UniProtKB/TrEMBL annotation:
It is an enzyme of class 2 (transferase). Phosphorylation of dTMP to form dTDP in both de novo and salvage pathways of dTTP synthesis. Belongs to the thymidylate kinase family. NCBIfam families: DTMP_kinase. Its EC number is 2.7.4.9. Keywords: ATP-binding, Kinase, Nucleotide biosynthesis, Nucleotide-binding, Transferase. It comes from Sporosarcina soli. It comes from the Bacteria. ATP binds at residues 12-19. This is Thymidylate kinase.
Amino acid sequence: MVQKGQFITFEGPEGAGKTTVIQEIYHRLKEDGRNVLLTREPGGIRIAEKIRTIILDNDHQEMDARTEALLYAAARRQHLAEKVIPALHEGYTVLCDRFVDSSLAYQGYARGLGIDEVWAINAFAIDGVMPDLTVFFDIDPEVGLARIAKNDQREENRLDNESLHFHRNVYEGYQELIRRYPDRIQLTDASLPKELVTENVWKIIGAQFI
Ligand SMILES: Nc1ncnc2c1ncn2[C@@H]1O[C@H](COP(=O)(O)OP(=O)(O)OP(=O)(O)O)[C@@H](O)[C@H]1O
Ligand SMILES: Cc1cn([C@H]2C[C@H](O)[C@@H](COP(=O)(O)O)O2)c(=O)[nH]c1=O
């Protein structure tokens, strides 16, 4: 695949501030005259948003861990094929709120399916498309969960409602990924005020692409 644009993904525990900061980064890149696509996983397009609803529905407590991993991978494939890959071909900078590292940390590590096993199904789904840069929003999972609990606009979903033990394991999973991919994954301190986190993320992106 000839990829002309840049693919930047954002990762971290619940409530880390990714969505908030990415929106500001999107506006700054646009002001800079770039073609930018802001999207998210799971979701971003019609079919993947439907899969998102199935995965995150609080009513679906019986969902099997492998089913969950496969659904995330299916949503990812459709999103890549329909939206991300065409945008990269056209030279867009693609900002994606979560990508394959979420599957590796949540399903691979925290659900206990195994990082390598979850990687295997995702390798099929992503077919070689990997981020040029991943920004990890580093925050104590308890602090992130407290932020979303305070936000009245947000309905907590099936994954949000997992135990603190699960969310701590997600964080541990990310630490393992940071050890495995030190060149791709850059860390930012997400416990700082929003404005500072935005400045730091802007610097990380600027150092590589602007
Ligand atoms: N740096 C910050 N300091 C304090 N509160 C913040 C900060 N950044 C975001 N918030 C608030 O925390 C909540 C979660 O932020 P946001 O939705 O951006 O996180 P997120 O990483 O996208 O979460 P999730 O992945 O769980 O959807 C929101 O209410 C937001 O206003
Ligand atoms: C892509 C992806 C996501 N998850 C989890 C992470 C969150 O709990 C939800 C998505 O909700 P958000 O508010 O949009 O962050 O799904 C996952 O477990 N595995 C994945 O691959």
